[in-house]
Amino acid sequence: MVDCLATISERYFPTGRTLVLSWNNCAGRTGTWTNEIGLLDRIHLAARWPVFMSCASDMDRNYTFGWGDKHGSYVLTVRFQFNDEEGVLWDVRKQMQILQTLSSWNPRARFVIMMTGQGIEGYRQRMIKALLKDLSAIQVLNVIILINLSEHSSSRHTNNPSDIHVFTWFPFTRPSGYCGTLSRAIVIDAWMSDSHRFLLNKDLFESKVPENLGLCPLRISTSHFPPFVIFPDENNTTLSSMRGVEMDMLRHISEAMNASVVLPHRIDNGTDSKAQNGVWTGPIGDLLYNRSDVALGAWCFTLEDSLVVDGTNSYFTEEFTFFIPRAEMYPLFLSMSRVFAPNVWLLIFVVILLTAVLLNRVALVRSVGESDSYKYITNCLLRVWSVIVGVSVHEMPRSNPLRGVFLLWVVFCLAINTVFQTYVTSYLVDPGFRYQIDSPEEVIESGLDVYVIDFLHAFLSDNLLNQLKSWRKCGSGNQCLMIVSKSPGVVMLSGKVFVEYKADKQNGVIMYHESSHDLFHFHIVMVIKKGSPFLDRMNIIIRRLVEGGFPGKFFKDIIEKENMRSLSELDQYFSMSVYHLQSAFVAMFVGMSLSVLLFFAELMTRLIQRSNQTNSEIV
């Protein structure tokens, strides 16, 4: 038996990872057990593994172990005495209970149960089957059982009574098992004591989960949580009718594993909780109480979750940030004035005056052959203004110096008008927003009310919560979004993917600015039971999907399907209305009002002049 165990450990136990030796009789600590089988000497002399010794009788003692690497292998020693079949089962259960309390417990490690004693063959098949069934209940599948049969027993592998038979089972391979249900244990190999080798030299720890599950059911626990899990409106729920990022991932995983997916009834925003009596509800409860194999629903895996369940490789990252009310839009009637900054407007008017003065001075110097209209400053001012507004002048300059100055002014006005017309059209359509609050510091300084989704509260530091002047919980993501949409002027802390999906689905009705500073992010995983045999195979498939960029594509496809734009919305042209042309009409009415006032002022001036002239003639 020692030679067999030494060969198995050297061939199959991972080097450098802890090897746990467990037994029920604590007398072994004083040397009785060690001297009887001589195993510890061989293991220590190999110097290939850290060794930890566990005794089931020490269950009441307080073990203090850190969170080190998971154990790599286990060796359990069981004695069969006085035809006590129940005693063997009790012995293994007791040892497994103490091993499960260790922080580095690893149900996916390689287990070897060494059974010694006399008269085992009479209880062999029934006892081994009961042992394997108990171990499968705690997800220990990668296990072999070593039994040294007596001289009266016979086997198709060997008739030598000193040979050791290796028993195991395969949960998804008939006739040993089917879809995770144990049918019977099988002898996978036998250790030949005379030649110190295995008879068939098979892989004793062959993978218990084949790549092809043969349409075995994969039970899913999830809830309606768009855009990750989207249940159909009809009552009949099938994998093909469901949508969402995680459902698309699950569809590819089930096809690669050739598994049939069993879906639950629709539940909106399912939650997990632990009652005072220790009973779990929700997806975690389904996993712990063997009602499901995989749990979905945008699961942000945490340390607390890792204590009770396992998570797959991450395939999506959800970033959480502040969604801040958009700043007020600039008034449309200011669109034309906002094309240039105030100092640029001032500089343009100064240049107009200087150009008019320059034209007038050049016309006075070159008076020979030049029109008299340019010799008056008012006429020059009118002609300069005509050019800048794109209106032809009444009379062109005649002298070459004046024409040169006039040409330079035309080129300047062409550049200014091109820039003005380009930007004024944009501002007429979209006047833009005033200064936008963006960073968390600005949110804190603004004193705005902050609504936080319930499950995010645990991830916010006390320092941040103390700095926020007014914050409150608002329930689930949908509840929080509904409250915020009815209460403008408040800030919401939520995930980007969730809000983007909701905003696009409602055609952009959620008018909130997404902060450019992320507070934190979570890696989303699928959750399975501790020690589940599906983990390794699922991780391989998920890693391939992530490397191919499929999760991001799935999300984009969902957004596109939810936001089929009409042809009018995709049109390149934009119909201007009076609403957009407020600034143009304001400028027109202001100009007309000034013109009317100047007209009446001119009439009044003429009337006053005529009255004064009449009075002077009378006198």
From TrEMBL:
List keywords of the entry alphabetically: Cell membrane, Glycoprotein, Ion channel, Ion transport, Ligand-gated ion channel, Membrane, Receptor, Transmembrane, Transmembrane helix, Transport
Q: Which residues form the Ionotropic glutamate receptor C-terminal domain?
A: 343-592
Q: Which residues form the signal peptide?
A: none
Q: Where are the transmembrane segments?
A: 344-364, 405-424, 579-601
Per the database record, which ranges form the Ionotropic glutamate receptor L-glutamate and glycine-binding domain?
A: 218-325
- What Pfam families has UniProt attached to this entry? Lig_chan, Lig_chan-Glu_bd
Gene Ontology terms describing biological process: detection of stimulus involved in sensory perception
Per the record, the domain of life is: Eukaryota
Q: Which InterPro entries match?
A: Glu/Gly-bd (IPR019594), Insect_Ionotropic_Sensory_Rcpt (IPR052192), Iontro_rcpt_C (IPR001320)
Write out the GO MF terms: ligand-gated monoatomic ion channel activity
Q: How does it sit in the membrane?
A: Multi-pass membrane protein
Q: How is this protein annotated for GO cellular component? A: plasma membrane
Localisation per UniProt entry: Cell membrane
Could you say which protein family the record assigns here?
A: Belongs to the glutamate-gated ion channel (TC 1.A.10.1) family.
Q: What is this protein called?
A: Uncharacterized protein
Give the source species. Cryptotermes secundus
